[in-house]
Write a structure and sequence with these properties.
The structure is a homodimer.
Chain A lengths: L1 E7 L1 H4 L7 H11 L3 E8 L3 H14 L2 E5 L10 H9 L3 E3 L1 H13 L13 E3 L3 E3 L8 E6 L2 E6 L3 H19 L5 E10 L3 H14 L4 E7 L4 E10 L5 H16 L3 E4 L4 H12 L3 E5 L6 H7 L3 H4 E6 L3 H8 L14 H15 L3 E8 L8 E9 L2 E9 L6 H21 L1
Parallel strand pairs in A: 1-2, 1-3, 3-8, 13-14, 13-15
Antiparallel strand pairs in A: 4-5, 6-7, 7-8, 9-11, 9-12, 10-11, 15-16, 16-17
Helix pairs in contact in A: 2-6, 3-4, 7-8, 9-14
Chain lengths: ~425, ~425
């Protein structure tokens, strides 16, 4: 069966806002096995919305519209659907009461404009909206359906999850459920992951195995997907394959599914009972910003110091020796000196120091030193990356925190 | 005249990447006065690309495709355009030499696949690609045209700017140029701006005046747009209106056009010769991260201190008195104490301190205190925002830096 998405809104068409809804809806539709062949964006114009709907209905089984169901004059999706299906719009008291209720809870009164939002094409299935003011609907005709959801992203998501996907699952007679587990990796490249589990990817049928590189956050995600008659039996299909992958990729895997790198590290730090301090320089890493935002950071994060000027460093860090390595906040020795200074000043168990230079010309690499000082010494990691690499700062932030994670895992044994 | 955009690519359709190209192209098309009525996304499927092209050609004068002109088997835009226009694809030696040349510069050799990229529909105008490997083309037919550009964003932008817009300007006989000036404001709401310049907005014809609120960065942009026979005369039309707006909105306007808030503040700080230090707490503001990233930060940014634990504060800041106001890193007094501590510890002219509590329940506001310590005393600004406000951390970061800007403007007189 085929599905098609229509995003309605002149502001989308003119590029004043970027359409992220369609991407989300597209992803959701694949989970119920619908084929998506077209996505269209149309402005707030009745005739053009109608013509887009007609084209879509002629070639797809399910047409999902997003946007254009607000209370104002230029919200025309409702009218367009009704006219294309040749049905009147019918006022639904229950929907109106719900809209009124929503306004009441916000301490506002419903206006006459909002009456229009409670109108849906005759015979359509209403979809209530507990998270906003625009109700949606599903209008079936000749074995096809137009499904109308709001354009406000969090409302649209609520509709998809609570009404649209259950409706589609029912319609499509989907008894099988699709269950996925995502393993998340940092500190290893996509081709290396591919090399280590190529045979599993190629031989994988249930679960199938997919790799996705998230360049911006430097993570590789391995997705294991199974089709099973019920959720309960999914684990028995996924677990053995997951075990094999974990055996091959070990500590590069920092978490699964909803885990975040920061969440996992924060839990590890809290379990360890160790405290941490960090010094950053003018390199754009954001270790301190990340640490302070972590859950429970008060329990483990003692101090963050940001220095862009070398002359401040020695008095502040109460160092016996002056800044090594040329007196600049750069290089391996300086990073170690900063990490030890952070640890000393904060009286913490661990100290992180990072120095870095961003490559600006071809042939010049980004050069970063990440130092971790602990009770048994100081380790410095050197990182060279090609000058053209984007997201270098994010990557180095994570690499520094990844060193902390590695230390904690080893300390735990 | 009407234009239409077709984005080609299964990864776009399935939402694996979000289509930002269409938004950019849409914005550019408005600058040459074209009406954009539809935007469609289609997967890498020959028949469906052809059908989308046919529908587009039937209702629009210019059809712009982006994507699907790479070297691989699933790049099918070229073939689809040729078939829809009923013309053969013709190999263009000059384009192929250019592709080969690009590979040579990268130190790689061109492959046979790339030959395909040098093929364009017979009679089409080739567009060379000095920034990548995929050449584009403009194929005219019956007074209409299909314009094919790459999907890689920076290549697409290069094509639009250097070939497509000049072509459209020529075709549309545009002698007039459209010139805009954007005034950027922070620290004032959209409705307040609207109220103060409503008469100018309503009466504005050349320039027309538009308001746009950028919620995420907390800025309001006022766009003045004129149509003029030449760029030189634009200033004489814009300047008087801009002058009137500046009179009414004064220092809320921090810059114009390409100015950024950070860039303007950095220039002000460097001009003033004053130095600055900042203390942040566990509130998610990123004042220190922002300051260290500013151009020339070494000249003015002395020190950033991040404290999430109150017990570290007194010894570090070498304060005579302990943390006031209940001993927590919260509230007006604590913010002032931190700002003074930052100034004392760093020996800087200015000290910034920020404390904050994020509202998590309905009825509980976000409550933030921003303190600026200088040679004549310490000023503390209290900010209350509704609990549901997103981007509160960005907003408060900017509000703190805005206090610095205000101080510098006043000090300058």
């Amino acid at each position: 069966m085929k599905a098609e998405i229509i995003a309605v809104g002149t502001e989308l068409l003119l590029g004043q806002i970027v359409d992220t809804n369609s991407a989300y809806i597209a992803q959701q539709l694949t989970t119920v096995g619908l084929d998506l062949h077209f996505k269209c964006t149309v402005g707030d114009n009745l005739e053009r919305i109608k013509s887009t709907l007609r084209t879509a209905l002629s070639r797809s089984d399910f047409v999902i519209t997003t946007g254009g169901i607000g209370p104002t004059l230029d919200d025309l999706t409702r009218e367009a659907v009704a006219e294309v299906l040749n049905r009147p719009l019918v006022f639904q008291l229950r929907l109106f009461e719900q809209v009124s209720d929503f306004f009441r809870r916000l301490g506002r009164t419903v206006s006459d404009n909002n009456r229009k939002q409670a109108c849906i094409p005759e015979g359509a299935i209403p979809i209530e909206n507990p998270v906003g003011t625009a109700p949606g609907f599903i209008a079936e005709q000749n074995g096809k359906a137009i499904i109308t959801v709001p354009g406000v992203p969090h409302e649209m998501r609520y509709f998809m999850e609570h009404s649209v996907l259950p409706y589609l699952r029912e319609k499509l007679g989907i008894r099988e459920v699709i269950v996925s587990r995502v393993l998340k990796l940092f500190g290893i490249g996509e081709s290396m992951v591919d090399e280590r589990i190529k045979d599993l990817i190629e031989g994988g049928t249930n679960p199938t195995i997919g790799l996705l590189a998230h360049t911006q956050i430097g993570e590789i995600h391995i997705r294991l997907t199974v089709k099973t008659p019920d959720v309960a039996s999914a684990a028995s299909l996924i677990n053995p394959v997951e075990g094999e992958i974990r055996k091959r990729l070990g500590n590069f895997i920092f978490g699964a599914d909803e885990d975040t790198f920061e969440g996992v590290l924060s839990a590890l730090l809290r379990q360890s009972g160790l405290t941490l301090a960090a010094v950053e320089t003018s390199f754009g890493s954001s270790i301190i910003q990340t640490l302070k935002g972590m859950e429970g950071s008060k329990d483990f994060f003692r101090l963050g110091l940001t220095l862009v000027n070398p002359d401040m460093a020695r008095p502040l860090l109460r160092a016996a020796e002056s800044l090594p390595g040329g007196g600049e906040l750069l290089g391996e020795e300086a990073a170690g000196w900063l990490a030890e200074g952070a640890r000393r000043l904060a009286g913490s168990d661990l100290g992180l120091g990072l120095t870095g230079r961003v490559g600006k010309e071809k042939g010049q690499d980004h050069l970063v030193h990440i130092a971790l000082a602990h009770s048994r010494g100081t380790e410095v990691l050197e990182q060279r990356w090609p000058f053209a690499m984007r997201f270098i700062e994010n990557r180095m932030t994570k690499m520094a925190l990844s060193q902390v994670r590695k230390f904690l895992l080893e300390a735990r044994g």
